[in-house]
Every structure is written in C-alpha cells, then in structure tokens.
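Running log. JK asked me to keep both predictions on one page so they can be read side by side. First protein, sequence followed by its tokens:
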Amino acid sequence: MRNLVPVLVVLAVIAGLWYAAVAPMNIRGALMVAERSGETVVPEGTSTRFDVSVWKLMADNPDHIHLAYGLDRPRLPTPGQVAGELWASTGAMALEGNGFSNRSLIYHGWITLRSTLWGFLLGTFLGLLGAVAIVHARVVDMSLMPWAIISQTIPIVALAPMIIVLSSQVGIDGRGVPKAIISAYLCYFPVLVGMVTGLRSPDRSQLDLLKTYNASQWQVFSKLRMPASLPYLFASLKIGIAAALVGTIVGELPTGAISGLGARILIGDQFGTPLAIWAALFAAAILAGILVTLLDVTQRLTLRRMGVR
C-alpha cells in the first residue's frame, strides 16, 4: 500500500492533465459539430476558425466546450473513451467468445507477443554470448564493443524495412522472423552492456582469493562472476523486454502486416480512427507492464533463493 500511493498520485496527475488537454485539442471539431447542428458559433465557418487560436475559440464559445469530450473521432480522446474502446476490443469480445477474432486486441496482442518473445530470447542469447566474450578476451572487448555501441545509432525505423527485404531475399516467408530479428536488435544491447558490467563487478580481492584456490576460469565464472552479475542481468532483461516489444511493433509498421498491435496502430491511422490507435497503444503498454512485472517477480524469487537482498 505504501508503494501504491505514489503510483496512484502520479496516475491522478497524468489523468488530470490529460482531461485538461482534451478541450483545446478537440475544440475545433466540437465547434464544427455544434455549427452543423444549427447552434451559434463564433466565428462562423470552419475555414475562418483555422486562423483563430484554440484558446480564443474556447473563450468565445464556452457553452460548446463540453462537446469536445464526446466526439466520435476526437484528436485527443478522454481516458474514459480509451478505456471504453479497450474494453470493447478485449474484455467484451472475450465474454462474447470472440477473444481471438481478428478484431480483438487480444489476438493482435498475441501476434505481437509471440515475435517479442522470440526476439527477446535471441537478443538475450546474443547479449550474454557477447558479454562473456568481451569480459574474457581483450581483443573482443576492443573490437566488438565499439561496433555494438555504433549499431544502436542506426534508426530502427530505417533498418526495419531493410531487414524485411533481406529476409525475403533469402527465402524467409512470413513476417514473424523479420519482426523477431528487429526485436532482437533492440534487445541485445542493454543485455550486453548490463552483463559486461555485472561480470566485471567482483572485486580484485575476490578474484585473487579464487586464484589462491587454483580455481579454473569456468569455476571463477560459475562461482563468482555469474552470481555477482545476476542483479545486473535482471535489470537489463527488464529494459530488454520493453525494447523487444518496441522493436516488434516498429517491425509491424512498414511491412504491410494486418496482424499485431503495430498493424492496428497503422490501420487506425489510415482509416482515421484515433480511438483504435489509442486502444492499441494502451494494450502495448499493458503488455509491457505484464512482461516487466513477470521478470521482476522472477528476479525477487531468484535473488531470495540465493540469499541476496
């Protein structure tokens, strides 16, 4: 409960700012609706109002501000509208037995989650492999680490279409594998950096102590470096799983995919349905929260079993 209060306070502040921003964002659409229904609007004419600031429109038309909170296609929906759309495309459809229809966000979330998990596993494996090599071989440290850093400066939006085209050229059909590669691309770097830091975290005195016992490299790794790196590993995995989810969604945007949360965002933009876009965004955020929470629980259980507080 002590940890829940700050979270609820921040959530209340965000919701308050969100509601306050709805009126100026939607006032032009609200005045258009009012004018079409025969009510008096100042100034008259949609083209005339484009040259007037939203603050003056709100000051001149205070009786129509409430319409900004109930538009069918608002520029900025209210939190209630987003929650309603999210429920309509998830819980309500599941209760009707259509949870995995192609109109359900549960189905699209599963498509995104599947590629995210494959990309996360691949990225984590490459990150761990690279970290072990960097820590144990100075040549790899000097050659691989700079390229790993430089690789993260390439915009993923530009790289994603290239990965998809190259995947199709080598005979990889479907969108799952390219999305997993893009996801792994974003995931491996935080794992690599975190594990390099973790594997180097033991003190010189601890390493010297194992040398006095004539411990082998494998024993130093398994008995000292790996246990010491676990807190760093879990912190990196939490960042990595969120990055993998972002990579998958970005990979769904330029591919012409019709399934997945990224595809829902793109289709919502093309058909002018902001509520669908916001619902998909919140579905992605909820999915990321669940994945990070699962990793956090795993971290707590693992470290508690190892006697680490």
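And the second, directly underneath as requested:
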Amino acid sequence: MLTLGIDLGSRKVKLAALRDWQLLWLRDFDTIPFYKRYGGMHEGRLTIDFAALELFSGGEQPSAMVVTGYGRNTINLEGARVIPEIQAHVLGARFQTGCDTFTLIDLGGQDTKVARVEGGILQDFLMNDKCAASSGRYLENMAQVLDISLDELARYADNPVSLDATCGIFGESELIGKIVEGHPLPHLCAGINATLVKRVLPMLRRFPQDMLLVTGGVARNQAFCRMLEQATGARLLVPEHPQHNGAIGCARHAAAGA
C-alpha cells in the first residue's frame, strides 16, 4: 500500500511517501515555484499536476493522500484529506523516533510550534504564527546580511555577540552595527543563533522539558540545537528527517486510514 503526505509550507513544499508503513522517499520544492509550475485552481480547489512531478513510476497512484501546512486553511487540495499542523508533526515525530512522551518544538519557515505529548496523546500545544522573528526566516535574513550560507551560520555557538532587538527587521539593523564595530564572523553567527534560542525559551516554559524533540528546518542548525540543549538542560533529540516531519506524519495518517 502506497500513501502520500504533503506539507504545504511557507518556504518549502515537502512530500513523503510510505509503502507498507516504510518510508519510501522524500521530496521538497521551493513553495512559489512549486505552485507556479505544478499547481492550479479548479472550482475553488487546488490541483497538483502529479504526472509532471514524476513522483510515481509505472502509473502507480497512492491509495490515500493527506495534506497539512501553512496553506491548509486557505487551500483545499483535490483528492486529499486535510489535518492540522500540530497533529501532522506529532504523528511524524512519533513515527520517526518511536517516542511516546516528549515536548516537541517545530521551527518552520515562518512560525514556531510547541506541543506536549504523553503516552502518545497530545496534551497541550502553543503556536507563534504572528511573528517570524522566532522562525527559520529570521536565520535566512541574518545569513543574507552576513552574505553566508545557512550551513556556515549553523557552525558557531561560542562567544556570541549580544543582539537585543526583539524584531527581526530591527535585528538586521543591529547586526549591521555589530559588523561595523568589527566583531568576528563566528561571534556574530553565534549571537544570531543565541538570539533565536532566547526567543523560543518563553514558549517552552509551560511545558515539561524531560525530552525535547526538535523538528523543522532550524533543527539542522547544530549550533542552535547545542545552545538550546544547554539552556534547557533537556535531553534533545533531532529525528533523521526534521524538515520533512510534517509530511511524514501526513503519510503515516494516510496509511492508518487507507
């Protein structure tokens, strides 16, 4: 049985396919080019040209398809069941790690989600989708200011420069000031990563921090994860495919209902 999960994110569209409960493949596309090339509207519903995507061989089609993500409230994908983002990410985290009790923090392109799961059941959750200053978009903007890649930004956690602006836009101006003052690049990068940790800590306060499971594109930032682990004292776990976690959760949900 083949099932497909789709996470329509603000920066990336992620897809995951399962066959007989085993992960078959993962794909991702930049969101805007994806809609331009493969998307269309038909009678108020989003359609995707799956043939052009060349996801399946020999004309094979998935038995079931589930979708979530940034666009889930505004886009009805034809032929798919829509589930909330929190549900998708919890399912993906459990599928990837086998853990039943944990606090999940998902840092996506434009929002941050925290959820508490005990015994496999969602107990509580919190979302910040009003400000991108505590999301991956903040890291992208700051890396652009420094003219470096996200991979290079993720290398530095020591001797962070203090960055106090709470707004991502003002943060860029503050960073430019620190560049002019002559701070070394590694210290500037560490300061950016430390600032993101400071911004997500208030969201974690009301949740137990025994096991902290980190997903989303920001989970690939090793310096951020190291600093977050030090700040919380929690045991931190990053699943094998953090950026595709929501899509994997959707594919798992589709498999359960197919």
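Observation for JK regarding the second prediction: The mean pLDDT is 90.
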